Each structure stands twice: as C-alpha cells, then as structure tokens.
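Q: Start with the shorter request: fold the first protein.
A: Done. Sequence, then structure:
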Amino acid sequence: MKTKNLSLLFILVFTSAFGLAQNPSMEIASKNNNLKIRGIAELGFLGVLSHQVQFSNSGTYINYVNEGGQDVLFPVSRLSLELEIRERHTLTFLYQPLRLETTTLLVRDLVIDDLVYPAGTGVNFLYNFPFYRISYMKELAPGSEKFDFALGASLQIRNATIEFESTDGTLFRSNRNIGPVPILKFRTRYTINNLTYTEIEADGFYAPVSYLNGSDNEVVGAILDASLRQGLNITDEVGAFLNLRYLGGGAVGTSDDEPGPGDGYVKNWLHFMTVTCGFVYAFPSF
C-alpha cells in the first residue's frame, strides 16, 4: 500500500510535465521561446564537515575525518541538463559523481561487519556515492520580471559502494546498495539586473525507508542538497556562476535484505560542503 501511494504521488507530479508534450494547443516556435534547453557544468572542491559510519551493531562508529583520511579537500564535478517548457515547467537531469578515496594508518582497532582491523594497519578507504536525479518543477510566479519561484519533486537513484581494505590485501569489507529516493524540490531566483542574479535551490526529504519503498526494513533515511548561487550572464547563450553547496544526509537502522557478513545494521551520516565554479550554455530555442 505504501509503495502504491508513493507511486501515485510521483505519477501525479510528473504527468503534468509529460502531458505538455501531448497537448495539441502547445505551439513550439522559436520566436516564442516555448522550449529551451540548458547545459550546466560545475567544477570545484569538496570539504568534509563531518562523516561517520558504522556497520553491524557490534561495529565501530568510524569518524572518517579523524580516522579515515577525509581531512583534506577532494575534487568535485556536477553535470545537468534542463528542459524548460513555455517558461512554466522545467525538467532536469542531474549526474553527481562523488568518490572519496583515502589511505591511512589506524590509530585504534576498528570492527567492520564482525571483522577486526587492528591498530597500526594501513587501510584503503573507498566511499563512492554517485547519484542520478530527475526533477520536475513548476514556476509559481510567471508574471514577475525580477523574482522566480518554482516548486516540484525529484527522483534520485543512489549507487553506493563503501569499502575497507587493508593495504596488504588480507582484510576486506564491502557494502553496496542501489535504490530510489523520492525528494521534494524548490528553486528561487532574484534577477538583480540584466547581468547578475542570485539563486537558491534545495532538494530534501526525511522519512523511514520502509515508507519510501514499501519494504519491512526499519531504516530511517534523509537527504538535503542545498545551494546558494551567484550568477553572471555573459551573453544570451553563455553564463557563469559561483556556487556554495551543502550536501548532507544518511541512514540508520537494520536491513533484512543484507546477506552478511554482519547483522545488517548500518549508521551513516555525512555533512559535505562544496565550492564550485560553473558555466551555463543555452541551446537555440525551439
């Protein structure tokens, strides 16, 4: 029943967007800019504010910053495409690679899914958590020349691989997971003048995983992806921006789907900050 209700919610949200393509009254003409496509790319660095993880109830609650080598900056990139329909409806597709690899010497024993990594062991840490996200937003202030406000929803696909391997190859644990994450979304923009604008955007959700996918797993998950952007319109087609982003979330609970080793309990909470420079290219309107 929970899965059915969730599916109906997203069908209602996205149908309004896809239904536009089948509306015979919708005229797509370049002179009216009814259909716009934008490509957006970001490049910068990521800093770990806080990141902790635990596998199995008997496992160690590991601090990645103090014990896992995540006390440095990491390169980060972000790619997205936006399809704007009649200045009222926007579809976006986002790809966010997120791969943190470190090697460090343990200062204490770590227990990961019933396997002990003794103090003094060199360990390779891999935290690979790229995600794909498709979103729909509807503009709620279409008549304003200075202010835009859009509200909608997203569906994110997580693709996680978390590994711990001793440098001599004798100790190894891996945790992998793929799954859908429904998210609420909003974006607002204030146009300062013809050259500059300020934009705030956020995707977020907090709920039991069993509510999201209809399973019996007692796992609570959350995500927040929020950004502040200062943009510059270089030409009609090309823009640039500086972006400050908070990326946080995680999950805690026990999953019955885990075959082992370990008892299926996981606690993983992260708080990242990114600073990026980006470019926007507006393709010719249809």
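Q: Next, the second protein, separately.
A: Sequence, then structure:
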Amino acid sequence: MRFLVAWDGSDGARAALRQARALAGAGGQIDLVHVLNPLLDAADVEAPSRHEAMAIVSERARTEMTAHADGAGQHIIVLEHGEEVPDRLLQEAARLHADIIVIASRRAAGLRGVLGSVTQQVLHDTTLPVLVVRA
C-alpha cells in the first residue's frame, strides 16, 4: 500500500507520519510530500533571487523531512506550487498512484479551523481514502 503524507513541518505532520508508519508496516511505501509556497516560505530568506531563495527553502525542508523519515520505504518530495496546495497534493497523489492520503487536522474554531482549509479541500476534492490525524 502506498501512503502520501502531507508534510508542513508541524507537530500534526509528525503525528500523520507516525500513523502512516503504523499502518504501512514493513511492506508499505510512504511518500512525504511538502508543497512550498514561494511567496510565504521564502519571504524571510535573503538571497540574490527568488529562485535561489526557493532553493534554500527547499533544501531546508528536505533536510527536516529526512530527519523525520526512517529511510526504509519512505521517499521525500518537496514541490514548489503554482496552484493551491490541496490541488498540488492531489496531483502528486495521482502521479504517485497513492492508495491513501494521510493529513493532519488543526485545532481551531469552526469546521474550516478544525480540519484546516487544506485538509477540508483535500477531503472535498479527492476520491482516495483520507486519514485525518488530529494534531
């Protein structure tokens, strides 16, 4: 079984990865996918160009994700997006032929706050099973 775990570096993403590991067991494959936003994620990075700033941010994300991946059956994917994050996650799930998406929820007021706008949109737009892990 192939799991796509949505990663943003949060405690919720770590919890989602733990759940995916538990479900995947020895034979499963886990793809950690972080979708970067060039405007937000590179805003505080000093670099000669936005392209170089995104390269720095991408490498930081990859390093952090590698620290949390145990290697066996886990792949690190860092994407820069031009679309909305949920759309990019679903495109990647289709490209990878994921069997399930594992994504964290957030604690806040209202349905959008409880699930998070990305989680809510993924649930709405996908035909794949989605495991929502409470952060």
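Q: Describe the second briefly.
A: The radius of gyration is 15 Å. Residues 50-68 form the longest helix (19 residues).
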